[in-house]
Prior knowledge:
The protein is of the alpha+beta class. It has six helices and ten strands. The protein has helices spanning 5-24, 29-39, 109-115, 145-155, 159-173, 183-195, and strands at 44-45, 51-57, 66-67, 73-75, 103-106, 123-130, 137-139, 200-204, 211-215, 225-231. The strands form three sheets. Strands 1-7-8-9-5 form a five-stranded mixed beta sheet. Strands 2-6-10 form a three-stranded antiparallel beta sheet. Strand 3 (66-67) and strand 4 form a beta hairpin. The longest helix is centred in the N-terminal third of the chain and has 20 residues, at 5-24. The radius of gyration is 19 Å and the shape is elongated.
Amino acid sequence: MNINTCEALLAELQIMQFKFESLNGQNKENNIANIVSTLNKCDIVTPKKEKWYRARKIQNNDENIIYNEVGIPIRGYDSEQSGVAPARYISEGRANDKNEQVLYVAEDQNTALKEIKTVKDSYISLSYCVLNKNIRLLDFSPYSNNELAGYANNQFNDGTDKMIFVEIQRILTLPEYSENEYVISRKLVRLIKENIKASGMLYISHYTGKKNIAIWDNNKFITFSEEKVVQGI
Length: 233
């Protein structure tokens, strides 16, 4: 990317400040304004792919699941239960607070399974949906080094914007395993929800390099099809 040292350093300091404040208190308005300025320059796209997949872990003795005589699930969740979960069952995630309904889907079955961190002896209900063709998603999908550099150079004139975008893309891609899981990404997504007119975001799976979508407006209430049971990977 075409970025000088001062621009790169400024972007890094702004993102470091955002991360620190997200974990330790209120984010300062001037720093938020810089990040929102970059977000406003990002592409908004509609997904080209038709089928998107969702995986949901099957809990033991779930009354909504049919089991065989030895307790193995033989049928997944139905079309209604395969979609976004009821608010009371939702824990914090990459793009949602506790009890906040956000629909997560992936471009293929393997990515859907990887994203929910399945294990080999678990059982998963897998289904797919067809998204509204007019849905608007903020695009964080440029992923490889060459693709990311090319996108940043074409999309942003300012070097600081380029580096802030790269850092945002990393925050939204990398998995979290700490006690503060996804605190920073949730703060970032909140800025998107409050400042950008979009239904959700398109981002990349760290595990497969394929695309994921998170949808937070009413487009998240969608019908799913072809529910089946698979084992974790």
